[in-house]
Design goal:
about 500 residues, alpha/beta, Beta-clip, Molybdenum Cofactor Biosythetic Enzyme, Chain A, Molybdopterin biosynthesis moea protein, domain 2, 6-stranded mixed sheet, magnesium, MoaB/Mog_dom, metal ion binding, molybdenum, EC 2.10.1.1
Length: about 500
């Protein structure tokens, strides 16, 4: 605790940190101006946002509640998916300088508790890719449906080749060829062989397939150089799936392998948890659409594009409804129309502090939302409620683009994954050593964009990008993670531990 009452997170002394980070320091090419002067550990590699960090032994610490018993690091409650109520916790709000703020966890619980659970729908198997199976699929067929060759070679009787060796091969007469798709195969008896292709029907009398590489690959006669046990390289009826076997379980993500199996058991359609339909709107008199040169005082609407893209990345079917018109009646009609076509409506806007603005008046006419201050930075002002005849959840996030995407990560993405039926609602997190001092407002959970890197000696190092300014889109585009600083932490010393949320596409 410092003299001025601030809480400080300390993982190492600054001298220790400088020594540790300076080991093998080298000049980085293409250095980001925002982090010039920060030592770059030798051979430290930037984590690829497309593949994400791979937890490997000692250099990765998966965040869980038991690992954070100390107050030295931020709480992982948002990132771990632990929804267990704390009996010692506040009822959902905190007092900051005499102002009651809703906690991040409480606002998240409100959103998750109100989003709908869409009923399963039946789709063609290809259209079901990426969704969760919503039915128990059992097979009425046997796979394979007939005894077949497991590879290219010669179908023979195992008793005929028991004495075969490289020095003394067994010589057999070849009485035919069978390709995959042939409706019949010649039977064989003692001393005979049939040349077969992988997947071809096994000839009657044969109980083994000798790989072509273990023969001289003769045409009229073949010499076999090895003995095989009965059943070798043969696929028997029902070896893969027997009638009545479960092909795909409820809750299984449907990918190429599941689509292959569904097709094999004769399913053209399958019941799945559908993609939630998300309508995205932007509010603000200052907004113009992309392609329109903004006049002085105007800005391009980036939120409806960014949030629609984020919703699609999370697995939703997103509609970009664009900018809300600056007329209350038309605004009401547009929002109401979106509630009729969507499972969730997402609105980004800057909301008035002194009293209701045009958007709030339109929302009040539709039933009203609860506007609240959430103890987070950036973007503490949020709103949530249900509107329209179908009581569709409407989520309002801050209008600053960086704050809007942070709010999406914290509140909207978990809601989409819940509607999809996903078990893991939140992104995986890791602990990382901060390469710089971090400052955070007391009482607010701070989300900073950063670049997380793996250190060759083990663990992760994270460098913040910028100073948390809500309008710096270029800085945000360079980030591959969010740094989470807890509400009761105002300073993290260089070398202190922080929670890092890697931003993995589709993760």
């Amino acid at each position: 605790m410092t003299d001025d009452g601030r809480t400080t997170v300390v993982g190492m002394s600054e001298d220790d940190t400088r020594g540790w980070l300076a080991t093998g320091t080298r000049e980085a090419s293409g250095t980001d101006p925002a982090v010039v002067g920060v030592p770059t550990p030798r051979d430290t590699q930037l984590i690829d946002p497309g593949s994400g960090p791979r937890p490997l032994g000692r250099d990765t610490v998966q965040v869980d509640r038991s690992a954070f018993a100390s107050d030295r690091v931020p709480s992982p409650a948002v990132a771990t998916g632990d929804r267990t109520p704390d009996p010692q916790a506040d009822t959902g709000s905190v007092d900051v300088s005499g102002v009651r703020l809703r906690t991040v966890e409480h606002h998240l619980d409100v959103v998750l508790g109100a989003v709908p659970q869409p009923d399963p729908i039946e789709l063609a198997v290809l259209d079901a890719q990426g969704l969760l199976c919503a039915e128990l699929v059992t097979s009425e067929l046997a796979l394979p449906a007939f005894d077949q060759a497991g590879l290219d070679g010669y179908a023979v009787r195992s008793v005929d080749v028991t004495a075969a060796t490289v020095e003394e091969p067994v010589d057999l007469a070849v009485v035919g060829d069978t390709e995959a798709g042939s409706t019949g195969a010649p039977g064989i008896s003692a001393g005979l062989a049939v040349r077969v292709a992988v997947g071809a029907m096994l000839p009657a009398g044969a109980d083994v397939v000798v790989p072509a590489a273990w023969t001289d690959q003769g045409v009229a006669r073949v010499r076999v150089f090895a003995a095989l046990a009965p059943g070798s390289y043969v696929r028997r009826v029902g070896d893969d799936v027997a009638p009545g076997d479960v092909a795909v379980q409820v809750g299984t993500p449907i990918g190429p392998a599941q689509i292959s199996l569904l097709a094999a058991v004769g399913r053209e359609r399958v019941a799945v948890r559908p993609r939630p339909r998300i309508s995205v709107l932007s509010a603000g008199d200052e907004l113009v659409d992309v392609g329109t040169p903004p006049a002085p005082g105007r800005v391009v609407d980036v939120n409806s594009y960014a949030l629609a893209a984020a919703a699609r990345d999370a697995g939703a079917e997103a509609y970009r409804a664009g900018i809300l018109p600056p007329d209350r009646r038309r605004m009401v009609e547009l929002i109401e129309g979106q509630t009729l076509r969507s499972d969730v409506v997402l609105i980004a806007g800057t909301f008035a502090n002194a009293g209701p603005d045009l958007l709030q008046e339109a929302l009040d006419e539709l039933g009203g939302l609860t506007f609240t201050q959430v103890a987070m930075h950036p973007g503490p002002v949020h709103a949530f409620g249900k509107l329209g005849p179908n009581q569709v959840p409407v989520i309002c996030v801050p209008g600053e683009p960086v704050a809007a995407l942070v709010a999406f990560e914290v509140f909207v993405r978990p809601a989409i994954r819940l509607m999809l039926g996903k078990r893991q609602l939140f992104r995986r997190t890791v602990q990382a050593v901060s390469a710089q001092q971090l400052l955070s407002p007391l009482g607010y959970r701070q989300y900073l964009h950063g670049q997380v890197m793996r250190h060759p000696d083990g663990g992760y190092v994270v460098e913040p990008i910028g100073d948390g300014d809500q309008a710096m889109l270029a800085r945000m585009a360079k980030a591959n993670c969010l740094i989470v600083v807890d509400e009761d932490v105002t300073e993290v010393a260089a070398g202190g531990l922080v929670t890092v949320m890697p931003m993995l596409l589709g993760g």
